[in-house]
Amino acid sequence: MNLKLFPYLSAGIAAALLAVYIAHLQQAQADENAAAAETTRIAPDQLRYPPGSPQLAYLNIEAVKSLTPPVMEPLPARITFDEDHTVRVFSPVAGRTQDIVAQPGQTVHAGDVLAWLFAPDYDTAVADLHKAQADHDSKQSAFTRAQRLHEAGVIATRDLEAAQADARGAQAELERATARLRGLNSVGRDGRFALRAPIGGVIAERHLNPGQELRPDANDPAFVITDTAHLDVVADVSESDVKKLRAGQAIRIESSDALEGDLSGKISTVGVAMDSNTRRIPVRAHLAHPPVGARPEMFVRMAPLDDASQAAVAIPNTAVVTTGQQSFVFVERSPGLLVKTQVTFAMRGRDLSYVSQGLTPGARVVTKGAILLDAELASDN
Questions:
Q1: Which of 52, 116, 210, 363 lies at a CB distance of 3.0 to 4.6 Å from 99, suitable for a disulfide?
Q2: 33, part of any domain
Q3: Which of 264, 284, 304 is the last residue of a domain?
Q4: Tens of pLDDT, residues 310-351
Q5: Residue 241: closest CA among 288, 277, 274
Q6: Can you give the residue range of the structural domain that contains 107?
Q7: Angstrom distances, CA of residue 85 to CA of 28, 201, 228
Q8: Total domains, the chain
Q9: How far apart are CA 153 and CA 144, in angstroms?
Q10: How many C-alpha atoms does 302 have within 13 Å on its Cβ side?
Q11: Domain boundary among 168, 200, 225
């Protein structure tokens, strides 16, 4: 390489680098100007974003609705079976499981076979019925014959009364054996007993395995059947809050996104005794029109309501920004136009606040990103 050209090459490279740097600064300035142009503060409390602005992607805007404020902070609760529409199935006879027909989640009707058992006691009940029937027929015939003989003066009245007592005893035994077999509610033979569903519903639990021995005095039921159209909500309440609750009081259920729609119900019972372990009083409420996604043991929040309270606009606390002692929310008046609006609360909760002034039902409120908007207004000022 010609060393005499080296100074000229170095100067050329430096000039090229300088040109690239200047172009980069100009592009950065242009990007800042473009970003600034995308947000226009048209008033001290108003921001306008053009359609497609990237800032809108960081915002969540929802229409708010009117709700009745609760009388207390929503209580942790769980969905459970409605005991008025739930049955725990035990085997009325001792036996060994041969075939399991019903499976968890399956819909059954009253009388459907849940499982087949090998139960010799069932054959014993059938034999007892046949024996009672034969004894009844024999003693009834003897009583009829005694009546004819008594009328002819062949036997004494005492013998007629004895035959009548035997016939009545045989009738009672027949009724007992018939009721026993009817209570088993099964049709089988050769010791096979059909364990049937007493009500219609869904198999919620199955505690039965092939070959398992069942007894009428077992601790766990073989099946649990429930009607999923009827569910309850149970909450444990402290002694200081229980005085605010009563049977028949309306409630609202708050849940995660797993349950859609407004859930409501009424308190059915307020416990009369405190649980010695939790030091809480159980409160049970019937859930009105449970959604399809509701399942027992789901965790929810129960908000007891006051019928005399006036409805207020409910907003999540993430929508609220505070300046001094004043509270504000950002309301979308038109697409891209966000207005900082002062509100007054009727009640503030852990997750939701209830606005008495400043908002109307149906208003579109920024529920996520309100702090960023407030900071942008402050920076423009």
A1: 116
A2: no
A3: 304
A4: 888 999 999 999 988 899 999 999 988 999 999 999 888 888
A5: 274
A6: 86-119+191-225
A7: 69, 9, 9
A8: 4
A9: 14
A10: 27
A11: 225
- Using alpha carbons, list the distances in angstroms from residue 274 to 235, 243, 282: 13, 13, 8
Question: Within 10 A of 34 (CB to CB), how many other CB atoms are there?
Answer: 9
310, two tokens: 């006036």
Termini Cα distance of the chain: 61
Helices (H) and strands (E) in the chain, counts: 4, 24
* CATH number of 110's domain: 2.40.50.100
**pLDDT under 50: residue ranges of the chain:** 1-6, 8-9, 35-37
Nearest CA to 149 among 137, 136, 134, 164? 164
Nearest partner of 246 among 79, 76, 71, judged by Cα = 71
CATH of the domain at 149: 1.10.287.470
Long-range contacts of 373-379 (CB under 8 A, 24+ apart): 373/47, 373/59, 373/321, 373/330, 373/338, 373/340, 374/321, 374/323, 374/328, 374/330, 374/340, 376/39, 376/41, 376/47, 377/41, 377/44, 377/45, 377/47, 377/340
Q: Are residues 342 and 363 in the same domain?
A: yes
Number of residues that this document lists for the chain:
381
β-strand pairing of 75-81 with 231-237:
antiparallel
C-alpha 13/C-alpha 197 separation (Å) is 90
Question: Do 101 and 205 sit in the same domain of this protein?
Answer: yes
